[in-house]
């Protein structure tokens, strides 16, 4: 049973690597994931990539915000705050309120955070590109 739990944790964390084919995560993440030999090592790779994607998200937000009229920027600020609350609440739910081993819930919550931050940064980049300008 313990081996089955370890295997499940590994596959949950591996899903971030598999999803990397659908999302253009950093080369650093690809290298890290390739050599990660345990679920803890893979979790460290995901955590580091979350930091990379959060930086990307902040840049994308700033670029989009500077292209908006003041009232639209205020609305974007509100929407972004609500998105962060939603993201953090979902992460906390997955990490703290879903039954399962620590490793499995950790893997699921980290994968959620990585995908969410990546996707939100992509949305903001697309929005900024569509607005043109700066």
From TrEMBL:
The keyword RNA-binding does not apply. Residues 1-20 form the signal peptide. The keyword Signal applies. It comes from the Bacteria. Keywords: Signal. InterPro entries: LprI-like_N. Residues 32-124 form the Lysozyme inhibitor LprI-like N-terminal domain. Pfam families: LprI (PF07007). This is DUF1311 domain-containing protein. The lineage of its organism: Bacteria, Pseudomonadati, Pseudomonadota, Betaproteobacteria, Burkholderiales.
């Amino acid at each position: 049973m313990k081996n089955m739990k370890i295997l499940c944790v590994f596959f949950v964390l591996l899903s971030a690597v598999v999803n990397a084919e659908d999302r253009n995560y950093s080369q650093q993440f690809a290298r890290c994931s390739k050599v990660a030999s345990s679920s803890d090592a893979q979790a460290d790779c995901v955590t580091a990539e979350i930091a990379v994607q959060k930086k990307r998200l902040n840049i994308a937000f700033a670029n989009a915000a500077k292209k908006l009229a003041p009232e639209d920027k205020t609305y974007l600020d509100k929407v972004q705050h609500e998105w962060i609350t939603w993201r953090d609440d979902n992460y906390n739910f997955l990490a703290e309120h879903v039954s399962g081993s620590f490793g499995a819930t950790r893997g699921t919550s980290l994968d959620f955070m990585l995908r969410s931050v990546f996707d939100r940064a992509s949305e903001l980049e697309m929005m900024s590109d569509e607005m043109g300008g700066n």
